[in-house]
Design a protein that fits this description.
The protein is mostly helical. It has a domain of about 40 residues. It is about 35% helix and about 10% strand. The strands form 2 sheets. A two-stranded antiparallel sheet has the order 1-2. A two-stranded antiparallel ribbon has the order 3-4. Helix 1 crosses helix 2. The two termini are about 45 Å apart. About 0% of the residues are buried.
């Protein structure tokens, strides 16, 4: 159970100011959050269950396979900026 003192301690650690009128609602909200987290943490995973049907997506996982691609020179021939067999990209530095 979360107490008023816990809320004040958390607020102090987070460097937040909490009005006295907000403490009661924050206590209830934080208790509900922790209760929900406990529910998730105590959920038991069924070891016999197959997880191939997640969100109605069946067999979403497949083996990687190498397929024939385009020739590198064919890909680079339309670029204006090529160097060492790669696209040359202008460096952009965001200075504030």
């Amino acid at each position: 159970m979360i107490t008023h003192e816990d809320i004040l301690k958390i607020a102090k650690l987070a460097k937040l100011s909490v009005k006295e009128t907000e403490i009661e609602q924050l206590t209830k909200d934080m208790s509900e959050i922790i209760k929900f987290a406990d529910t998730i943490n105590t959920a038991v995973e069924d070891k016999d269950e197959e997880f191939d049907d997640i969100n109605n997506i069946v067999n979403a996982y497949h083996e990687d396979e190498v397929i024939k691609s385009f020739d590198k020179e064919e890909i680079l021939k339309n670029s204006e900026s090529v160097g060492n067999g790669c696209f040359v990209v202008k460096k952009h530095v965001n200075r504030r």
